[in-house]
Design brief:
Elements lengths: L3 H33 L5 H7 L2 H15 L2 H19 L4 H5 L1 H29 L7 E7 L2 E5 L7 E7 L2 E5 L10 E8 L2 E5 L4 E10 L2 E4 L11 E13 L2 E5 L2
Parallel strand pairs: 1-3, 2-4, 3-5, 4-6, 5-9, 6-10, 7-9, 8-10
Length: 245
Amino acid sequence: MVTEKPKEMENQRSSDKRLYFGVALILFGGLLVLEKLDIIPSSLNDILISWQMLLIAIGVFSLIGGNKTSGTILVVIGSFFLIPDIIHIPYEIRQIGWPLFIIAVGVVLLITHSRKRNSVAAAKENGKPEIDYFDDFVIFGGREVLVNSQNFYGGKTTSMFGGTEYDFRQAQLSQNGAVIDSVSIFGGCSFKVPHDWTIKNEVTAVFGAFSDKRGSSINHIVPDTSKTLIIRGFTAFGGIEIKHF
């Protein structure tokens, strides 16, 4: 009975994400219908159907999915660029807008870093060292990470206008497998994994893609279901890629 509960919880979380995403699509489609029927005022239409609202929506979806770092930052970015379209901001205040924005992002990173330290401390108390888990955020840049943990159990990664590549070919999964929450916005994230790992795709893609490029190189290898890596999250205008080389 104890071994069934984690699977039930994972299935419930996956089902909840599909529910939330379905509701979001219905709301967005409804807005488009109202816009085509000229029911929504043009001034409000420019706000509701904009790239800023898209970032906010993706941020909210990320928060619901449990990725608080990327979700909060996306909501902050979207809100920052949306405020001038809603209210008139005096020139003097607009002059300090960017410094305030940078400060806001810094505050969010400090808060999430504090939470990360607390979660790492809790993980250590449960016998899970810090190397077995990661929480990364990349924006306007790139990063390559070698993971050689022998008891890897999960992590969170966010790539915005940049890319991150993780190499797990020297790593071993924990006894219960691992879960990675990946968010890619106008960027990409790739994972190099051993041939015999079983990859479970739970990524929601909007104008993006999830691809397993191990291809024919794994046709003669039977995946080991005891080595299961679940990748969930969200990608928009970007991609998440699985490969071996």
